[in-house]
């Protein structure tokens, strides 16, 4: 089980509070771009699909038949080593929050791998075309494995 984050100490200004509350939790631009490419290529998927044994968590995109789970992690919220920047205000709280998020991501990945899923994680700054190519390759491998297991 992942550790809990203590209650937020409060936004430093009402403007920051308002701005932070507008960030989407789902259907982000990178998710929509990848979904559009996958749909255009004929692939069908589920959105915000529940994770087995972690029912309060969801996959951003799930190819349930192939058992391929896709996560597109936001640079700020998931601590991207290239673009993740901690706010100046409440820095210690945000550092702990992002560390807990990383631990939850690892736990989620482990749970899916244990259940036989292929897990792909991307950063939001990665080009959608690159993500789509990686997903397409993973789906082909997963479908090939599933086909081979069916003949055994």
Q: How are the elements arranged and paired?
A:
Blueprint: H1 14-21, H2 29-40, E1 46-51, E2 54-63, E3 68-73, H3 75-78, H4 91-114, E4 118-123, H5 128-151
Parallel strand pairs: 3-4
Antiparallel strand pairs: 1-2, 2-3
Helix pairs in contact: 2-5
Condensed summary:
The chain is an alpha+beta fold and 152 residues long. The chain has five helices and four strands; from the N terminus they run ααβββααβα. It has a four-stranded mixed beta sheet, sandwiched between helices.
Q: How would you characterize the overall build of this protein?
A:
This protein has 152 residues and is α+β, with helices and mostly antiparallel strands. Helices cover 47% and strands 18% of the residues. It has five helices and four strands, in the order ααβββααβα. A four-stranded mixed sheet has the order 1-2-3-4, sandwiched between helices. A hairpin with a 2-residue loop joins strand 1 (46-51) and strand 2. Helix 2 crosses helix 5. The radius of gyration is 17 Å and the shape is globular. The model has no long low-confidence stretch (mean pLDDT 87).
Properties at a glance:
152 residues; alpha+beta; 4-stranded mixed sheet; 5 helices; globular
Largest sheet: 4 strands, mixed
**Structural class determined from secondary elements:** alpha+beta
Instruction: Please estimate the helix content.
Output: 40-55%
- What is the CA-based Rg, rounded? 17 Å
What proportion of the residues form beta strands (DSSP E)? 15-25%
Q: Give the spatial strand order of the biggest sheet.
A: 1-2-3-4
| Shape category | globular
* Helix-strand pattern: HHEEEHHEH
**Overall mean confidence score, pLDDT:** 87
